[in-house]
Amino acid sequence: MDFNKIIHNNSIPASNNIYSPVINPLVGLKRNGQTHQDIARILDRIHFESEFRKKDLLQQAIPGWTFTASIYTNGPLSYVAEDCTRWENRQTFFDDGILSRAQKRSISYRAGSWMNSWTGEQGPNLLSLIAHTLGTTLQNAICWIAETLGIDIGALNVPQFEMPRNFDFTANPQVICMFPPLAHWLLGYPSHQYCFVTEFGNQSFNLSEWKMEGETVRLFASVCHAPRSGGFDWLFVRPPVEHILFNKHRLKCEHHLPVFIYDDILLAAQHATHPNFVATWSGEKSYTADIDWSLLSGREVTYVLSNENSDSYLMCDTLRDVFNGMQTELTFEKECEGFHV
User: Fold this and answer.
1) Domain 243-333, what fold?
2) What is the pTM of this model?
3) Using CA atoms, how far apart are residues 297 and 272, in angstroms rounded to an integer?
4) Rounded to an integer, what distance in angstroms lies between the CA atom of residue 291 and that of residue 239?
5) Please, which residues bridge with residue 71 across strands?
6) Distance between CA 264 and CA 244 in Å, rounded?
7) In this predicted structure, what is the pLDDT of residue 299?
8) 138-149 and 126-134 helices, crossing angle to 10°
9) Which residues pair with 261 in a beta bridge?
10) Which is nearest to 189 in space by CA: 159, 215, 209, 217?
11) Which segments of the chain belong to CATH 3.40.50?
């Protein structure tokens, strides 16, 4: 891999790659025709895939790494591969500031963080570490990683990264007293979240939403279980498609009410508690046909199209075929026509 063929000659080397609006790669890497959601999902895939290939990527960026279970080292560089706590010698001081003796202390490290002990520079993930080791910008490092991993950084209509290898989906995180989802590694905290629940009304996973330059970016946040470590964590990955059914508890319990399938999750959420019908969401074009629609079998079901979603008419035939297969008639109407508005 010839890194010099990928980077730009006028690149400014990265120093401390903590994300800020100035160096947010969403801005610099977006190609013609791409939406912010496209590039966000591509960067998420690069983020996850680079973790799976971190040893190879680090060796290609700068050879000489020593690998242990939790922390990788290369001269002054250290990278935390897994959350860990270690007993280490730390210098102590008297109350008046005079140097005292070193003592053993318990130090906790967060997976993904790195540090250069010679310069004091540090960062939050593998992408920023590779930018640091290559002495270039975060954008150029991401381009190098994408080419190394064979990921098309200019792809359109990008599906969200699915449940990663060696992780299991946790459909009902309440059973393990799960903490709320954290900020996205690149986008920060979402402006809005749509909660998907189990058939019993318990929180299952979220669809998180951000607004960027007039565009909407939506990513699922799912609770994942790592069997190897036994730990649970929120990851911004798409849950198994069969679980993507919005307002599931009402669909299960209120069989006497008609169902309206909206092509926009925002509209479905706005009507989620309507007393005269049950609102749900069609999902995205790439997986609409694979959602488990069995709770709607034999019921009065209407697909509501809006003018905002260019995929609405493409999903009409897909949904018609799905419901025909369940011997259920599906009717169609525009969002502005029905009594539900």
Assistant:
1) Rossmann fold (3.40.50)
2) 0.83
3) 20
4) 11
5) 80
6) 14
7) 96
8) 110
9) 280, 303
10) 209
11) 243-333
